Amino acid sequence: MLKAVYPGSFDPVTNGHIDIMERCAVFVEKLVVAVLDNPSKASLFSVEERVAMLKEATRNMPNVEVRSFYGLLVDFCRQVDAGLVIRGLRAVTDFEYEFKMALANRKLAEDIETVFISSSSDNMFISSSSIKEIAMFGGSVEDMVPECVKNCLDRKFKNREEK
User: Fold this and answer.
1) Distance in angstroms (rounded) separating the CA atoms of residues 68 and 50
2) Residue 75 sits in a domain of what CATH number?
3) Are 31 and 63 in contact (CB under 8 A)?
4) Among 40, 41, 107, 158, the one annotated catalytic
5) Of 37, 30, 40, 29, which Cα lies nearest the Cα of 10?
């Protein structure tokens, strides 16, 4: 069984992430979307919130499983018996960072391959950081995130305004 892991912080998940998942789910039997629990990184959404949003956004993708993980990606890949890591690329700047990570992972686990998938042109400009900033200042993110994520962003920033 060809099983792949698509890791990320997904804070929040965007249509760009969903596009990568949909395209990759076609050529693997199981795609494990792995939400990184990184306590040193300040996140808008908790790991539990991000997992819940991803489960809702991928509910129509039967071969996609959403899980969280802490620690080394290669250890998580071994835990779920995946030999392939999927990484999405939006621009050349993404490639440099992702390439270094792929080389480090390869050094740790020669049996785990990394595949880079380029973003669709419609999603190349979308990043989780830009989504948070747009939503924080009241801009529309409707065409850039799944509806469940838009609703979570609306609630999150409404709650901040009320405090």
Assistant:
1) 9
2) 3.40.50.620
3) yes
4) 41
5) 37
Closest among 51, 55, 44, 58 to 11, alpha carbons compared: 44
Q: Is 40 among the catalytic positions?
A: no
As for how many domains the chain has, the answer is 1
Give the C-alpha separation, 106 to 29, whole Å.
Answer: 23
Determine which one of 3, 67, 90, 156 is catalytic.
Answer: 90
Contacts of 23 (CB under 8 A, 6+ apart): 117
How many beta carbons lie within 10 A of that of residue 15, not counting itself?
Answer: 20
Alpha carbon distances (Å) from 119 to 11, 21, 150: 18, 11, 21
Threshold 0.70, pTM exceeds: yes
Pairing of the two strands 113-118 and 64-69: unpaired
Tens digit of pLDDT for each residue in 34-52? Answer: 999 988 888 999 999 999 9
- Burial (Cβ within 10 Å: 0-12, 13-18, ≥19) of residue 62: exposed
